[in-house]
Design a protein that fits this description.
single chain; 28 helices
Length: about 650
C-alpha cells in the first residue's frame, strides 16, 4: 500500500529535521486542499433554499430552535414538515446549531461549504497516513475537493446528510489508523465512537462502518495475520459495532423497522420506489452504474435529473454487460500489484457506501448527491494508481509540467463547480438550465412550476406543472402542485379556468379519497367556479366537500373557513357565521378564522362585535400581514 515514509534531504537536520519538513509540507498541502474546496464552492453562498430544503429546513421550525436538540435523538417526527419520519439526529443537530449561530440560507449553505472543505482536508490526512505520499494524497484530495459532482451535496442544505455521513466515516477511519498502529490510545477509540455517531446519526449509510474498519485493518496489516492483530482489531471494532447496533435498535423502536423493506414491493409504476421489485432495481442499476462511474471519472453533461431507463429483468443483455463491466473494473482495481492494498480499500469504500442506493428502490434511482461518498473511495483508488503510472507519465513530460497540467485541470473543475453552484441562487434558473439540456424531464418541469408556485407566480406555474403532470400522470405531488396552482390563479386573471381546476382536483381526489388536502383543493376549485360563473350549485358543492374533511381527518380551522366562504358565496351570512363559530367552539380559532368572522360580523352590520373580534386578533398577531390588511380595510371610510 505504500506505507513507507519517503526520505527527505535536509541540511544537518537529521531525522528530526526531516520529520519537521514533512509536517510543514503536510500542513501546506492540507491548507491548499481546504482553499480549493472553498474557492470551488464559494458561489453556493448566493443560493436560496431549494427542493427538499424547503420542508426540511425553511419550514421546519424544530431545527430553528437550539433547545430542540435533545428531542432530535428521540423523536423522528422532527425530521421534516410533511415528508414523513426519519431518524437522523446528528444531521438535525447540525442544522439547529447552524441556525442558532446565524439563520438563513447563506449561513446554512456556508456550513455545507465548510463541511465539504473539512471532509476534503480530512480525506487528504487519511490518505497521507495510509500511503505516506504527500503529493499523491494531495492530488487525490484536491480532485475530490473541486469535483463538480459534489455540487448537489454542497448546494442542497438537505443533502448535508451526505457530507456529514462522509465526514463521520472519515473521522472513524482516520482514528482507526492511529488505533491500529498503536499510536492513538483512548483518543483514537473516542474518535472512532464520535465518527460512528456522526455517520449513523446523519444517514443510514453509517451502518457499513464495521465492515469498512475490518477492510482497513486487513489492508494495513504487515505480514501474516496473527493473534495480536486480531485482538487489536476486536478491541477497536467493539465500540463501532456497539454504536451501530444501538442506532439500529433506536430505529426499530422509533420507526418500527431497523432496516428498509427490500422484498414484497409491488406496483405498476417503476418510477416509484415501491413500484420496483428488487430484481428490477438491480437490473436497472446494472445499466446505470457504468454511466455513474463514467461521470465520476469525467464529469461531462451532468444533470440535476439523470435520465434512467428501467430494466425489468436480468434477461436483458445490457444488464449483464453493465454488471460485467463493473465487475471488470473492480477486478482491475484490486489486482495484486504495488499499491493494491490502498486500491482495494478504496474499492471497498466506494461499493459499501453506494450499496444502500444501489439495492434500495428509491423514488429517484439516481441523484448526484449520492455520489459523494463513492467519490471518496475513488480518491483512495487514485492514490494507489498514481505511483504506478508516474514513471510512464514522466517519459512524456517532466514532473513540473504534470503539476502544471494538474493545476489547470483543478482550475477548470473549480470553475465548473462554481458555475453549477451559481445556478442554485434561484431554483427557477436551475430548472430552466436543466430543460435546455433535457426538454422532456418531468422533474424539471415539475420543479420549475413548483418554484414559481412558492414565489406566488401562480399564473406562470400552471403551464410547467401541466407539462410535468402530462409527462408523469401518476406522480401525486406533481398533480397536487398542479391543482394548487390552478385554484390560486386570481379570478380576474385571463388565464383563470375554474372548470379545469375542478376537473384536475377531482382526478387528484380519486388518487386518495382519504387525503384531506385534496378535498380542500376541490373545495377551493368549486369556490372559484361559483365566484366566476355565479353558480350557486358550485358553492353548495364546495361546502359539502370542505365539511367532508371532518370525516377523514382531525378537524382544522381551515375547513370551517372554507365552509364559511361557501355560505358567503350563497349570500347566507348567518350560515357563514355559524360555521366559523363552530370551528372556534372546537378550539380552532386560527387567525384566518377570526378575521373571516370579523368580516362577516361587519357585513351583518354588527360593527361593535366586528371591531372587538379584530382587536383580539390584532393583539394575538400584530405583525401578521393579513391582520394589518384587515385593520386598514376596517379603518377605510365607507363608500
Amino acid at each position: 500500500m505504500g506505507c513507507r515514509a519517503r526520505s527527505v534531504a535536509v541540511g544537518g537536520g537529521g531525522v528530526n529535521g526531516a520529520r519537521s519538513h514533512v509536517e510543514r509540507l503536510v500542513r501546506r498541502v492540507a491548507g491548499v486542499v481546504l482553499l480549493l474546496a472553498i474557492l470551488a464552492y464559494g458561489t453556493a453562498l448566493a443560493g436560496e433554499f431549494v427542493f427538499d430544503d424547503v420542508h426540511s429546513v425553511a419550514a421546519n421550525t424544530a431545527v430553528q430552535a437550539i433547545a430542540n436538540v435533545p428531542t432530535f435523538w428521540v423523536d423522528p417526527d422532527a425530521f421534516s414538515i410533511g415528508s414523513g419520519k426519519m431518524y437522523r439526529p446528528a444531521l438535525l443537530t447540525s442544522f439547529a446549531v447552524n441556525w442558532w449561530l446565524c439563520a438563513g440560507p447563506m449561513s446554512l449553505k456556508a456550513g455545507n461549504v465548510l463541511l465539504h472543505a473539512a471532509t476534503a482536508g480530512l480525506a487528504f490526512l487519511w490518505l497521507w497516513r495510509l500511503s505516506r505520499r504527500v503529493l499523491v494524497a494531495g492530488l487525490a484530495a484536491a480532485w475530490f475537493a473541486v469535483h463538480p459532482l459534489a455540487s448537489e451535496a454542497v448546494n442542497l442544505v438537505s443533502a448535508r446528510s451526505e457530507l456529514l455521513a462522509a465526514f463521520g466515516i472519515l473521522v472513524t477511519l482516520h482514528a482507526h489508523v492511529g488505533w491500529q498502529r498503536g499510536t492513538g490510545g483512548f483518543a483514537a477509540l473516542a474518535g472512532m465512537v464520535l465518527g460512528t455517531v456522526l455517520a449513523c446519526g446523519s444517514k443510514e449509510t453509517g451502518v457499513v462502518l464495521p465492515v469498512l474498519v475490518v477492510a482497513q485493518t486487513w489492508c494495513m496489516r504487515h505480514g501474516a495475520w496473527d493473534r495480536t492483530q486480531g485482538r487489536r482489531l476486536a478491541q477497536g471494532l467493539a465500540p463501532v459495532v456497539a454504536v451501530v447496533l444501538g442506532y439500529l435498535v433506536a430505529r426499530k423502536l422509533l420507526l418500527g423497522q431497523a432496516t428498509v423493506q427490500l422484498l414484497g414491493r409491488a406496483g405498476d409504476d417503476p418510477a416509484s420506489g415501491h413500484g420496483r421489485s428488487l430484481a428490477m432495481q438491480l437490473a436497472t442499476m446494472g445499466t446505470e452504474l457504468p454511466h455513474v462511474l463514467g461521470q465520476i471519472l469525467l464529469p461531462a453533461r451532468l444533470s440535476f435529473d439523470p435520465a434512467v431507463t428501467f430494466r425489468t429483468s436480468f434477461g436483458d443483455p445490457l444488464v449483464w454487460l453493465g454488471w460485467g463491466s463493473m465487475l471488470g473494473v473492480t477486478l482491475w482495481a484490486t489486482w495484486p500489484r504495488p499499491g493494491a492494498r490502498l486500491r482495494r480499500l478504496g474499492v471497498a469504500f466506494a461499493w459499501l457506501v453506494a450499496a444502500p442506493w444501489i439495492v434500495v428502490p428509491l423514488n429517484m434511482p439516481l441523484a448526484e448527491h449520492r455520489y459523494y461518498g463513492p467519490m471518496l473511495g475513488c480518491s483512495a483508488v487514485l492514490v494507489g494508481v498514481l505511483p504506478r503510472v508516474a514513471p510512464f507519465a514522466r517519459r512524456l513530460l517532466p514532473r513540473r509540467a504534470w503539476l502544471a497540467v494538474a493545476a489547470v485541470v483543478a482550475v477548470l473543475a473549480a470553475v465548473h463547480s462554481g458555475t453549477r453552484s451559481w445556478l442554485y441562487r434561484d431554483e427557477r434558473a436551475l430548472w430552466a438550465a436543466e430543460l435546455e439540456q433535457h426538454p422532456d424531464s418531468f422533474r424539471a418541469w415539475w420543479g420549475l412550476g413548483a418554484a414559481r408556485l412558492r414565489n406566488h407566480d401562480y399564473t406562470g406555474a400552471v403551464a410547467p406543472l401541466a407539462k410535468g403532470h402530462a409527462l408523469y400522470p401518476l406522480h401525486y405531488d406533481a398533480h397536487r402542485n398542479f391543482a394548487e396552482a390552478l385554484v390560486s390563479v386570481p379570478d380576474d386573471d385571463a388565464t383563470a379556468d375554474p372548470e379545469r381546476a375542478v376537473a384536475v382536483c377531482h382526478d387528484l381526489l380519486a388518487k386518495g379519497t382519504d387525503k384531506p388536502w385534496a378535498r380542500t383543493l376541490l373545495a377551493q376549485a368549486e369556490l372559484q367556479l361559483g365566484r366566476m360563473r355565479r353558480d350557486p350549485a358550485a358553492f353548495e358543492r364546495a361546502e359539502r366537500v370542505a365539511l367532508s374533511c371532518l370525516d377523514v381527518a382531525a378537524p382544522k380551522g381551515y375547513v370551517y373557513w372554507l365552509a364559511a366562504k361557501a355560505r358567503r358565496g350563497l349570500d347566507d351570512l348567518p350560515g357563514a357565521l355559524q360555521h366559523l363559530d363552530a370551528g372556534i367552539a372546537r378550539g380552532l380559532g386560527t387567525t384566518s378564522v377570526r378575521l373571516e368572522r370579523a368580516a362577516v360580523l361587519r357585513d351583518l352590520g354588527r360593527l361593535d362585535e366586528a371591531r372587538a373580534e379584530l382587536a383580539r386578533v390584532q393583539r394575538e398577531a400584530p405583525l401578521d400581514p393579513a391582520v394589518m390588511q384587515a385593520v386598514q380595510q376596517f379603518a377605510a371610510p365607507g363608500r
